[in-house]
Amino acid sequence: MQTATARIGVSAARSSLGRWRVVDIIVASVIGVAAGLIFWGWGLAYNPIGTPLEAALPGLQGLVNGGWLFAGVLGALVIRKPGAALYTELVAAIVSALIGTQWGPWTLVSGLTQGIGAEIVFALFLYSSYRLGVALLAGVGAAVALSITDLIVSYPGSDTPFIIIYTVTSIISGVVIAGLLSWLAMRGIARTGALSRFASGRESAVRV
């Protein structure tokens, strides 16, 4: 009887893990919209920052790319449900595209692939670990997805040195901006009590 009860409890926990609540959707949407506004502003700053980097060393502009990768990582760290990374990154891309970006419809493709890149990492950990190391790896996943998309769409036919430099610098940017800064942001928001209805908020409260 105890074994059956335990199995029922595990089954219920797994079901709860995958079930989105209304508050999950609302908060994920807020994160996505806010990130979309930042994406749009980041796009305005891309040429002034990225062009000198590219002139110094072709591919070095990848250091700027992390600014478009944090939405999915932050969303997953806060919501902690399957699909959170993909949802928040895609919402952010839609918002920035609606406002207007120089990349047009490709912004949506980028948001989709970057969200999938981050989502895969959290899935590999069975959506059960949201520590700093996992956040950093999610930044890597999003950066690799971005690099693949950009090299196909924006830089077709690039030579090997460019591909390597662009991918490596994008990963570095993804680790620092999307991984580390998103994790720190989640911890900071949680300490304010704003995430008390989420596991991320409760976990932070216990550590404090």
How would you portray this structure in words?
- This protein is mainly alpha-helical and 208 residues long.
- It has one domain (21-202).
- Helix content is 77%, strand content 0%.
- It has eight helices and no strands.
- The protein has helices at 2-18, 22-56, 70-79, 84-99, 106-124, 132-153, 160-191, 199-207.
- Helix 3 crosses helix 4 (84-99) and helix 3 (70-79) crosses helix 5.
- The radius of gyration is 18 Å and the shape is globular.
* Assembly state: single chain
Give the radius of gyration.
18 Å
Task: Pick out the low-confidence regions.
Answer: 1-15
Count of alpha/pi helices: 8
The SSE string, one letter per element, is HHHHHHHH
Percent of sequence in beta strands: under 5%
State the separation between the terminal residues, measured CA to CA: 38 Å
Helix content: over 70%
Number of beta-strand segments: 0
- Large-scale geometry: globular
Mean pLDDT over the residues = 88
Class based on secondary structure composition and strand pairing: mainly alpha
Count of discrete structural domains: 1
Quick structural gist:
This protein is an all-alpha fold and 208 residues long. The chain contains eight helices and no strands. The protein has one domain.
Attribute tags:
single chain, 208 residues, mainly alpha, 0% strand, disordered N terminus
